[in-house]
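Support reply, case 0932

Customer input (verbatim):
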Amino acid sequence: MRRLIASLRIFVSGAWLSYIALFHWTHPASYIASKIIMPIASMLFFLYLGMSATGYDTAQFYIVGNALQIVAISAIYGVTMTVGHERNMGTLIYLIGSPANRLAIFLGRAFFNILDGMLGVVIGFIVGGLIGLDLTSANLPGLAITILISSISTCGLGLMLGSISLTALNVMFVNNTIFFLILVFSGANLPLDKMPAWMQVVSKWLPLTRSIKSARLFVSGASLTEVSLLLASEFAIGLAYALVGFIFFRWFEFQARKRGTLEAF
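Our regenerated output:
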């Protein structure tokens, strides 16, 4: 019981401190710009670009897709930088040298980014409602579950990328590459059935693909039973990415201890 309480304390305190450390360099104005204004501007850009090409009737398609896409900012950039910067900032040696539960440390790096990502999506839907998104027939509880699962799933990918970034010189290169791959392949701005076959195969291995499809179904009034398989698959993909990330994290720790390369690039 004591070990469980200690692990929980490490999880919560580590999660909070790592989230604060991620934004230690910024001011409230720049934080708001990066977490609210930029994602909303991106959503509006793809919305009006899509409507100019396909017509006003497709507005709901682009609003829902890009509102869900906002979660990738916290999940990809936030989580990857939280894990990857442990090495850059010189704190990794203290984490690895501590007797703390490794799983609690690892998962804690994603916790507040999950909440942050959910908040970003909610703001996206609020803005969407102001510009024409009709939620009168939407299954709101189902939509809320979708937002939660999408944030967890994408943060699972972020944890894996963060572990990989421990061996990379440039974390942002990894972030940008994966973020734009998800933007293109997830179906946020291009219907999956209109993609080439190879793109559809790639999209099935990425988080958000099923969440975006689920969100569109819930906005149209679908029941939880109809969408449950999509949500379960999305959650499983996120757990798989997180598991791979944790395995890589432990492998990196083992190799770093063996070779004495904790602070070497």
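We compared this against your earlier run and they match. Two observations from our side: Residues 224-259 form the longest helix (36 residues). DSSP finds eleven helices and no strands in the chain. Please reopen the case if you see a mismatch on your end.
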